[in-house]
């Protein structure tokens, strides 16, 4: 028995186009100050809409993205980072500017106070030493 599609002269066709994905690992670095940790990821050529930032409840940050290069090619990446132990995971923010992704990870309030106090103590000790050397 002939199918309806066959009688109409139409056939099911697969129009799946093969895309080529070029995987890469962007350069990244961590920095911090007394209030937060900052993850920097260098992503030249990417747009904000092409990126995805996820934080899970296991202390991991996943940064990924893909962008169209043309002629059936995409460039894509995916990197997973561990959160610092003193991170306040509920307050993480991301900012993308001129090809650079900033993941701003605030430190827990207790940790910030302790580090600030430690820096103040170190500064006071340095000042005392300088005064002794002058005398």
UniProtKB/TrEMBL annotation:
One of its GO terms (biological process) is cellular response to heat. GO terms for cellular component: plasma membrane. Keywords: Cell membrane, Membrane, Plant defense. Residues 111-135 are annotated as: Disordered. It comes from the Eukaryota. The keyword Magnesium does not apply. Residues 111-121 have a biased composition (Basic and acidic residues). It is a single-pass membrane protein. Residues 123-135 have a biased composition (Acidic residues). It holds the Pfam family HSP20. Transmembrane segments: none annotated. Belongs to the small heat shock protein (HSP20) family. This is Inactive protein RESTRICTED TEV MOVEMENT 2-like. The gene is LOC104586788.
């Amino acid at each position: 028995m002939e199918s309806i599609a066959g009688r109409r002269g139409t056939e099911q066709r697969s129009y799946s186009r093969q895309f080529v994905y070029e995987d890469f690992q962007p350069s990244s670095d961590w920095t911090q100050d007394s209030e937060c940790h900052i993850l920097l990821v260098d992503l030249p050529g990417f747009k904000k809409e092409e990126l995805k930032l996820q934080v899970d409840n296991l202390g991991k940050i996943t940064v990924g993205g893909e962008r169209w290069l043309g002629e059936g090619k995409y460039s894509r990446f995916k990197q997973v980072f561990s959160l610092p132990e003193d991170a306040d995971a509920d307050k993480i923010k991301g900012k993308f500017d001129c090809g650079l992704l900033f993941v701003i990870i605030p430190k827990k309030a207790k940790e910030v106070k302790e580090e600030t106090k430690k820096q103040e103590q170190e500064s006071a000790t340095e000042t005392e030493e300088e005064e002794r050397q002058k005398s």
